[in-house]
Structure formats: C-alpha cells, structure tokens
Design brief:
single chain; Arc Repressor Mutant, subunit A; Chorismate lyase; 6-stranded antiparallel sheet; 27% helix; Chorismate_lyase_/UTRA_dom_sf; Tscrpt_reg_HTH_GntR; DNA-binding
Length: 250
C-alpha cells in the first residue's frame, strides 16, 4: 500500500499538480485519505525522500524538492581564461546565471590512489599534489573536483596554493613547460563511497556520475588527472560535438 501512495504522489509531482516547493498533505491527512497506519504513510514518504523527489523539513512537514540542476560542460575546460581578473571559471559562469557559487579548496601532498598513479604513469613512491574542491551553488554542495599533478613538476607553483587560480591550472602547467594538447575523458556512473556522501551531503540512494579526465602534453606525457563527482539528482551533463566533413566534401 505504501508503494501505491508513493506512486500517486510521484505522479502528481511529475504532472505538476504538486509544484516544486509545494507542501505535501500531512501524515494525518494521508492516513485518513487512504485508511492506513502511520507506519505505512511514513514508508511512502520515505520512499519519495530516497528518490530525491521530496524533502523532509520537520516540524513543517514534507515538500516537493526544488530542482535547478547544474549543467556540467566538460568541453568548458578548454575555454580561454581568465574570465575576470577576480574570479575563476566556475564562479564566473554561475554568477552570470544569477546563482551564488562558491568553492572550498584544499591542497595537499599525498601518495596517489592506485588509479591515479596508473594514469599519471608514476614510479613507486612518487608523490602527487592534489587540489580538492567542493563546489557550492546557492549554499548546496553540487560537486567535487579533485585534480592530481606529479609533485615533481608543480612544486612551488600556483597549483600549491589553496586559492582560486584565475587563469586556470592548465595555463600554469603550460608556463611550466607542460602544455596539455589532448585529454582522455572517462565517464562512470555508480553509487557513492562514504567520503563522497560526506563531502556532498548525499541522501540515501543517490547515485553519482564520475568524470575522469587525463591531460597529456604534445609528447604524450600525462600531467594531470581531474576527477569530478556529480550527484545524479543535481546535474545535467552537456557535451557539444562538431562533425568534420569527410575528405573531398565541402
């Protein structure tokens, strides 16, 4: 029965009968309407909360979740920088949309995870510098972006400072003699690990998309691995592709 109640409310949300921000009927009202126990009503509401459709705001009640997803554009990595002298790409782009972006940045020297060490082709024991960022929109953590660099090439550079790099880490690498000319993108969809749940304040049952990029120099040397973790209920991934005409065609 709780699934049937959830189906009805879900349908009302999908059709717009219950608009974003709308308050759901109270538990008492749902019990009376469907002739069920409090436990059944709570299981129905819990199911909708776990699906990310409804939020619980006790003692006020349950509300339809407001959704304003972030459009994640992997190709934006290659836009010219800086956008403004004071703000980096993320802050500039979403400020222009009328939202309130901010990010928390941590920098550390660590032993790389095995998958990062493999992609950077590091020797055993070689360390990396990692820039860990949690990006917020309107006060909500939207995604994380962790970039790993061989410590041997970024030591004493801007990359080691826990602050915005207005011109972008790619340009810093270029100045150091390691300009990236191509990147390999990998996309994974999975359930989050505990650290991701904590950093992104994820609700139960929320999957994540993981965009993993490895950047290479002209000589084929990998110099950066960037891992962006995107909660599935907060993002639209938008790729732009350009078709090249076959040889001989205009």
């Amino acid at each position: 029965m709780y699934q049937q109640i959830a189906d009805v409310i879900r349908s009302q949300i999908d059709t717009g009968q219950l608009a974003p921000g709308a308050k759901l009927p109270t538990e008492a009202e749902l019990r009376e309407e469907y002739g069920v126990s409090r436990e059944t009503v709570r299981k129905a509401l819990g199911l909708l909360v776990n699906e990310g459709l409804v939020v619980s705001a006790r003692p006020q009640g349950h509300f339809v979740r407001r959704r304003q997803p972030m459009v994640f554009r992997p190709q934006a990595e290659f836009r010219e920088r800086p956008y403004t002298p004071e703000m980096d790409a993320f802050v500039t782009e979403y400020s222009a949309e009328g939202r309130e972006p901010r990010q928390e940045i941590e920098v550390a020297i660590v032993e790389p995870p095995a998958d990062v060490a493999k992609r950077l082709r590091l020797e055993p024991g070689e360390l990396v510098a990692v820039r860990k960022r949690v990006r917020y929109l309107d006060g909500e953590p939207f995604n994380t972006n962790d970039s790993y660099f061989p410590l041997s090439i970024v030591r004493d550079s801007e990359i080691m400072r826990p602050e915005n790099i207005t011109r972008g880490a790619n340009e810093v690498l270029a100045d150091l003699g390691y300009r990236q000319v191509r990147a390999l993108d990998e996309l994974y969809v999975r359930m989050p690990v505990p650290d991701e749940v904590h950093r992104l304040d994820l609700g139960p049952g929320t999957p994540v998309g993981v965009h993993l990029t490895t950047g290479f120099t002209e000589k084929g040397k990998p110099v950066r691995v960037a891992i962006t973790t995107l909660p599935g209920d907060r993002h639209v991934v938008s790729y732009e592709r350009r078709w090249e005409a076959p040889d001989g065609e205009a």
